[in-house]
Design brief:
By secondary structure, this protein is an alpha/beta fold. It is built from 30 helices and 21 strands. It has four domains: about 170 residues, no CATH class; about 110 residues, OB fold (Dihydrolipoamide Acetyltransferase, E2P); about 160 residues, P-loop containing nucleotide triphosphate hydrolases (Rossmann fold); about 160 residues, P-loop containing nucleotide triphosphate hydrolases (Rossmann fold, 3-Layer(aba) Sandwich). The strands form four sheets. Strands 11-12-10-13-14-9-15 form a seven-stranded parallel β-sheet, with helices on both faces. Helix 10 packs antiparallel against helix 12. The longest helix is centred in the middle third of the chain and has 31 residues.
Length: about 850
């Protein structure tokens, strides 16, 4: 059977089975006429028959039930007259006239399986052609969301949210499989498939007022339309002339021949797109278009642009989502209490979702986005506060020390503590003396004196008969901390040298066994190590403090494993990464924060310069002058080895070139992440001893050994690093008595002029640089290993301090009155919180 005829049979038979209620096709039978007409003509059905079908069904919605039945029977007779072979196939086996029509169903564009079966796409190609035949019957043409006041708050979720996409007419198994690539499996997924951007076609203009380059909407009539092959004959070009009484505009579409069937001369249409120019005349190429009589989804409005995948077109997906949003969004329960909606001045959730998908105005769009972003940040803050309460609700042994102990520790130091260090010491002392476990983040630049404070905390814990563990991300850094603690604790911390040990992955097994026994018996009071401390055989007699350095390099599970080794364990995490205030309020919001914003005396200011690639030889000459003056230098590269895909210099190849061509008389070390741990350690130790004049390295040197004699940090491909990372690289020099320099060489001339890199020249304020990094590159540079147990943020930005503070303020107020969300009006919010935080006690800090 002709496929267009077969499709018509399915729809009309289904309509008869439903009692002629005009719901066999979502939106009514008239919705399928345009695409079916184009398909029928392309399939070769007699033009007179096609015209008869279209004419009789166009007024179908306005007919009474008996008239509808009569119309379908009449169509059946007409079709059988044209195709005698169909005489035995009933077109409309109608229900008895007295049977009432089926009542309207509240389900969104989601008919019963029987309804959907007849409207399934024939193959994947139906998804790939914009407005291809068969599209209009796939979805309901919903009215644009209104900005009117929301209906009364729904008491529960609308039925069918978890229904599969195949419940929608026109989406069969193949189409659903294609949509699954976008993470879309249910109607609820479609509801939350938010636009990635918007095209504003709300500016309606007449043709005589058009200008090149603007994005506009025009309304006009089709004067001419032609279909011709492009050069080579591989594709078809549709050319049309559209006029509106003020002028005419030439419009073209590439490889969409069916448009020529749809846009016959005289038809009124709406066009939206960018005004181009060809041979001095204004044109439009491949604009969005819709019939004037149809509610506009793609033109004459702010049009949503959704993430797509191969086989899914923008127009088709927009129509499907419009159908689902119009039906489900107003009936979606709002988890936010009315009191918060009022105090935070928020749109109701259903209205916010409607306006986020199909906004009436830019103002409404901003309000909708603010509401959805607020929800995410509010749930994040509630989870953070819950974690903090759970942690601080645990009883912990008090570990006080008297002023004499503190004074003895101070006097054992080779220098005076800065004012910032004194404040931090007071914080640590108060935390340990309380009956609640410490949960503190100690933040300060490289060289600001964090290790000294970790030593003080370890000494206080040891003085109270407990053990302390300090975990560092690398063997080199662990050794450096061990050396510092060994210099400080025996003199001022009441810890004998035999009670302080170092445990690394490379520690000989016999020594490891001895250390494990000492930790289990309590003979070892302070242990420094890497992730080897997490291994199951390591148990503690009375672990009272865990100190984690560069904590963003450890995953949540690793920190939890260390914390689990001691009951009511005090936790001190340290980082040299400047953390913007917005991150401190969110991702680290369950930690008490102490800032070391003062550098110890004697630290040299570091002179920073951004250089263009053509100035590289000058940089090498400067490095050479410093080496000849007895100093050492770092040269950092973004890659280990050269890549065909990335045009950036790589450490291994550049190390060879530098050694052979630039610095042949000097010794160059090589350090990168693919080296064996022992080899990396030996290279860094050799550089500290002075075995190498220059250390060529990748970013693994970011947290490394202290080399006071190094005065130059030369960073190649500096534009490929974040500012926070560059700031940490820079902190590896300037640690001795000599003036130090940081040279940033960009990949290209444009990058050298980049304002982001120039900021390194003008400020040494790590927090300012971190704020810029967060704004320009997002939070990834700060979090490293994924920190959060919470869901991905779709709308909220961790750079929006105003939103974060607003959400935190509302969360704190709610937390004061109902921290467990047990009040009946907070039950929907409690469910939303559990969905947002997959685990109930996951750590994020």
């Amino acid at each position: 059977m002709n496929p267009a005829l077969d499709k018509l049979f399915k729809y009309l038979r289904l309509e008869a089975d439903r009692g002629f209620d005009n719901r066999a096709v979502v939106g009514g039978l008239e919705r399928m006429l345009e695409p079916w007409e184009a398909e029928a003509r392309a399939a070769g059905l007699p033009p007179a028959l096609v015209e008869a079908v279209v004419t009789r069904l166009r007024d179908y919605p306005r007919l009474s039930q008996p008239s509808r039945e009569e119309t379908l029977r009449g169509l059946g007779n007409r079709i059988r007259a044209e195709f005698p072979e169909l005489v035995g196939r009933p077109l409309a086996a109608a229900l008895p006239p007295e049977t009432p029509a089926a009542p309207p169903t509240p389900a969104p564009a989601a008919p019963t399986p029987d309804e959907g079966a007849g409207a399934e796409f024939e193959d994947e190609d139906d998804l790939e052609d914009e407005l291809a035949p068969g599209e209009a019957e796939a979805v309901e043409e919903a009215e644009a969301p209104s900005a009117a006041a929301a209906a009364p708050r729904p008491s529960g979720p609308p039925p069918g949210l978890d229904a599969p996409l195949t419940a929608i007419q026109g989406i069969g198994p193949k189409s659903a499989q294609t949509l699954e690539k976008l993470g879309l499996r249910t109607l609820e997924d479609l509801l939350w498939h938010l636009p990635r951007r918007y095209d504003d076609y709300s500016q309606l203009k007449t043709i005589n007022r058009l200008w090149y380059g603007e994005e506009v909407t025009i309304i006009g009539a089709v004067d001419e339309i032609h279909l011709r092959p492009t050069r080579g004959g591989q594709r078809m070009l549709v050319e049309a002339v559209i006029s509106d009484g003020t002028g005419a505009l030439r419009v073209t579409w590439f490889n969409q021949p069916w448009i020529a069937e749809r846009l016959r001369p005289g038809r009124a249409i709406v066009l939206s797109g960018r005004i181009d120019q060809y041979l001095g005349r204004l044109t439009m190429n491949s604009p969005e278009w819709e019939p004037l009589e149809r509610q506009q989804l793609h033109t004459n409005r702010i049009v949503p642009v959704y993430p797509l995948t191969a086989g899914v077109t923008a127009k088709w997906l927009r129509r499907v989502i419009s159908s689902v949003v119009a039906r489900l969004a107003p009936r979606l329960p709002d988890p936010m209490p009315d009191s918060i909606l009022r105090s935070a001045d928020l749109l109701p959730l259903g209205l916010a979702l409607q306006q986020a998908h199909f906004p009436d105005s830019q103002e409404r769009l901003a309000q909708a986005q603010h509401r959805l972003a607020f929800d995410e940040m509010f749930l994040l803050q509630l989870g953070v506060l819950r974690q903090k309460r759970e942690w601080t609700g645990i009883a912990s042994p008090q570990m006080p020390v008297d002023e004499a102990w503190i004074e003895r520790f101070r006097s054992s130091l080779p220098y005076r503590l800065t004012a910032a260090q004194e404040i931090a010491l007071a914080d640590l002392r108060a935390d340990l003396a309380s009956d609640r476990p410490m949960n503190r983040l100690l933040q300060g630049d490289v060289g600001s004196g964090k290790t000294v404070l970790a030593a003080a905390a370890a000494g206080i814990v040891a003085a109270n008969g407990f053990q302390a563990a300090l975990m560092a991300p690398t063997s080199i850094l662990a050794e450096q901390h061990f050396t510092t603690l060994r210099d400080l604790l025996p003199r001022g911390g009441d810890v004998r040298e035999s009670e302080l040990r170092l445990l690394l992955g490379s520690t000989p097994e016999t020594e490891k066994q001895e250390i494990r026994q000492g930790l289990e018996s309590g003979a070892i009071r302070v242990i420094v190590g890497t992730h080897a401390l997490l291994e199951d055989p390591v148990t503690f007699a009375r672990l009272g403090l865990a100190v984690i350095d560069e904590q963003h390099r450890f995953g949540v599970e690793q920190r939890a494993a260390l914390r689990a080794k001691g009951a009511a364990l005090n936790l001190l995490v340290m980082t040299a990464t400047p953390i913007p205030r917005s991150l401190a309020l969110t991702v680290y919001g369950d930690l008490d924060l102490t800032l070391l914003d003062e550098m110890p005396p004697g630290r040299q200011p570091i002179e920073t310069r951004v250089l263009a690639p053509r100035e590289r030889s000058r940089a090498y000459q400067f490095v050479l002058s410093q080496i000849e003056a007895g100093r050492q230098a770092y040269i950092i590269y973004p890659l280990v080895e050269e890549s065909e895909k990335i045009e950036a210099k790589a450490a291994v190849e550049e190390h060879r070139k530098l050694q052979e061509q630039v610095f042949p008389k000097h010794r160059l070390g090589l350090l990168h992440g693919r080296m064996r741990p022992d080899d990396k350690e030996q290279t860094m130790l050799g550089f500290r001893r002075g075995d190498y004049h220059i250390l060529v390295s990748t970013s693994v040197v970011e947290v490394g050994v202290d080399v006071p004699n190094a005065t130059v940090m030369l960073i190649e491909g500096a534009n490929r690093f974040g500012l926070a990372q560059l700031h940490q690289f820079r902190g590896r020099v300037g640690r001795g008595e000599h003036h130090s320099y940081c040279l940033l060489v960009a990949d290209g001339e444009d990058e050298a002029e980049n304002e982001r890199l120039r900021a390194m020249e003008t400020t040494s304020d790590g927090f300012r640089l971190a704020e810029m990094d967060l704004e320009q590159r997002g939070p990834g540079d700060f979090l490293g290993t994924r920190q959060s147990g919470f869901a991905e943020l779709r709308m909220a930005r961790l750079t929006d301090v105003h939103l974060i503070e607003k959400a935190r303020r509302e969360a704190l107020h709610l937390f004061e009155t109902d921290p467990d969300l047990t009040q009946p009006e907070h039950a929907p919010l409690a469910r939303a919180l559990e969905r947002f935080w997959p685990t109930t006690k996951g750590e994020i800090s």
